[in-house]
User: Which sequence fits this backbone?
């Protein structure tokens, strides 16, 4: 109940962005759950393309707000919004705002189970990592998906 009151006290623009983040996160989670990745990947941007790391101040502010909304919703709702759905949702919201971004997919050896791989996804907009930034340095990038406005 306290979370609902906190949500209702936020400015209308924040509430809309949080609801948009929830919608895209739920859609991304459903897609990852029921659809082969080869069908999802064409909707993530140009394969093996990285976008420039420059971003103006207005775009930077919008990107940070989107990052905040996606991570807030993912943190407060226990619905399996892990790195890939977060990166996909943020990417689609950024696309709506015409901001270039790059989604990275990486893999590494599982430290607990040698011979098994772990996967991770993160999203960059300009110079800033918006989602999945923690621990990304230990992953080897195997694919990128870039969106240019």
Assistant:
């Amino acid at each position: 109940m306290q979370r609902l009151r906190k949500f209702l006290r936020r400015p209308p623009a924040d509430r809309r962005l949080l609801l948009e983040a929830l919608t895209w996160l739920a859609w991304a989670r459903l897609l990852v759950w029921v659809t082969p990745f080869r069908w999802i990947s064409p909707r993530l941007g140009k394969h093996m393309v990285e976008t420039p790391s420059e971003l103006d101040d207005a775009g930077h502010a919008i990107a940070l707000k989107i990052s905040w909304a996606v991570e807030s919703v993912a943190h407060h709702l226990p619905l399996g919004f892990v790195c890939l759905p977060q990166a996909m949702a943020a990417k689609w919201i950024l696309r709506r705002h015409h901001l270039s971004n790059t989604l990275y997919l990486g893999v590494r050896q599982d430290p607990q189970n040698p011979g098994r791989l772990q996967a991770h996804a993160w999203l960059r907009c300009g110079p800033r990592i918006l989602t999945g930034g923690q621990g990304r340095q230990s992953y080897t990038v195997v694919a990128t998906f870039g969106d240019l406005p």
Q: What stands out?
A: Residues 57 and 116 are 42 Å apart (CA to CA). The beta strands are 46-47, 101-109, 117-125, 128-131, 140-147. The longest strand covers residues 101-109. The chain has a mean pLDDT of 94.
